[in-house]
Every structure is written in C-alpha cells, then in structure tokens.
Amino acid sequence: MTTGPTPPEPEVPDRPLEPPASGDRLLLRWTLILLAASLTGAGWLAARASASGMTRMVLDALLNIGFGSLIALTAYRVVVRFPFRILDLLAIVLMLSVGLKLTLDALQSASRYALVQMGPIEAREQIGTVALWCLLTSSVLMAGAALGLRYCVRLKLDAPSARIAAIVHGMLFFPAFVGLFAFPALVVSDLFGEVPNPDTQLTATYLLLFVFSLYVMIRNGLFLIRSMALEDEIKTGSGSGT
Known about the structure:
By secondary structure, this protein is mainly α. The chain contains seven helices and no strands. The radius of gyration is 24 Å and the shape is flat.
C-alpha cells in the first residue's frame, strides 16, 4: 500500500492566539482608535476649561504621563520584535538607569539656572513634566536598543561583549545624533557669546561630549554599512542559487 507525500505542516503564526487582521478589520480598528482618542481629547479639554487650578494641574500631569506611556509602550513593542538574551537585558536596564539619572540631573540644572520655565523638579506640581521627560528618555533609549538588537540579528553577533557593544551603541544613536548639533552650538555660544566670564571647564566638557557623539555616530554608521553589505550578499547568494 503506497502513501502519498506527507502534506507540509502549516506555519505557526507569530501570534497564534491573535489571527492576522485583514484590511477591513485593520482600517476599522484604527478608525475606532482615532475616534476614541478624539473623544478623550475633547473631554479632557472640556474638563480642563471648567476646572480649578489644582484640578488643571492633575489633568496636565495625567496627560503628560499618558502621552509618555504611549510612546514608551510603542518603543517596548519594537524592542520585543527581536530576540534578546539575559545579558542583553541587563545592558538595556543599566543604560536606562544611567539615562534617567542624567535626565533628572539635566532637568535640575536647567531649573536651577532658569533655562526652562519650571520650578524645582521635586515639587508636587512638576510630577507630570518630570514623568514625561523620563518616559521620553526611556522611549528614545528603548528605540535605540531595538536598533542594537537588529545589529545583533543582522550581523549574527554571538559573543556577549560584541552584543553588548552593539546594543550600547544603538541606544546612544539618537542622543548622539542630537549632540552632534547641540554641543558645537554650546561651544560656539560659550566662546563667542556675550557671557562675560564663560566657564572654560564646561566648554571643554561640551567639546568632549561632541567628540564622543561623533565617535558613537561613526560606530553606528559602521554597523549600518556592515548590515547593508551583508543583506546585499544574502540577496546575491540567493539569486545565484536560483
């Protein structure tokens, strides 16, 4: 008795408990999301317009925290698309801790020197603003962690030191990109500005941070070039094999 060929096993979807959404379902989902966001925003504006000062402070804090949490959730969903190891997770958590500490120090310094219009960051009315800045910092670093994990996947990095280096450089990509333009402006402002006695130590710190930002951008550029070259090699190999 002969048997026919064994039928191929069906592919397991990425989310077996959640069937892929069709075009109509996806459009309906985003329509409902936008409608709910519009109604929530209109209700928030109406409540804030007729509220007292303390209630407005609470509403502003809720808005800042909710907006920052949404961005942080989006960055988290991007990170979990890539496989990671326990050492990768430890490196990400350590970088997040350092980034949040630097964010709080920067806010405290900016508030002390009246660079931003806000009171002391430890004040109760500043909880929404501080939470928003911390969530934005976490989101930027998490997006960079996703970039670093993509380096690990594309370049097939297995050594722990190589993976941690790729993740750290990826997490510093967006801050370094901003610093590449911000720190030279601060150096020029200190050297040629109207400040009578500029702090030379602070100017030297800005210059060192600019050099560090340039180094981080160069390393990320090398990672991106290697990833693109590897992708071209894979496409060329698969084309020649067919």
